[in-house]
Amino acid sequence: MEYSCVQLTDLPDEILITIFKKLANIEVLYSIVGVNKRLNKIAYDFVFTNNLALLMSTLDGFVYSLHDPILDRFCLHILPEIHQKIKWLELESQSMEHILLATNYPNLCGISLYNIEPEKAIDLFTGKIFYFYSSNDRHIKSISKINL
C-alpha cells in the first residue's frame, strides 16, 4: 500500500477556511499568523478579525485574562496588523487597558466588558482611553446597558 502525505498548506483556501471556522477567532490568529503569507491572508480575513474575544472563558461562565505570552503576541504583533478590521472586542478587566492601548481601532463599534469593577468602568469612560477614542472623530452612539 502506498501512503501519501498531505500537508495543511496543500489544501485549497476554501477548505482551510471551513476548518478554521471551527476554531475561535483568537485561536486562528494566534496559531497561523506568521506561518506564511498565504495563511496570513486567510487569518486576516474579515471572518476571523471582525469580532475578537480576547479572553478565556470556562464552561461554567467564569472569564479570565489570556496568558501573558498570548496577550503580548496579540498586543505587539497581531492587533496592529488587523486593527482596522476589528468591529467588536470582548475584553476582561485585567487586560483591557493593555489591549485598548496596543493600537487604534478606527472601525470599532462595540466592546463587551467582563469582570469590571465600578471604579474601573468610571476610569475607562472618563479617562484617557475613552478620551482617546472619542477625540478621534468617533462618537459613541449609545451605551445600551451597563451592569456594575
UniProtKB/TrEMBL annotation:
Name under which the protein is recorded: F-box domain-containing protein
Cross-referenced PROSITE patterns: FBOX
Domain F-box residue range list: 5-52
SUPFAM superfamilies per the UniProt record, alphabetical: F-box domain (SSF81383)
Classification via InterPro entries: F-box-like_dom_sf, F-box_dom, LRR_dom_sf
One Pfam family, short name: F-box-like
TM region(s), chain numbering: none
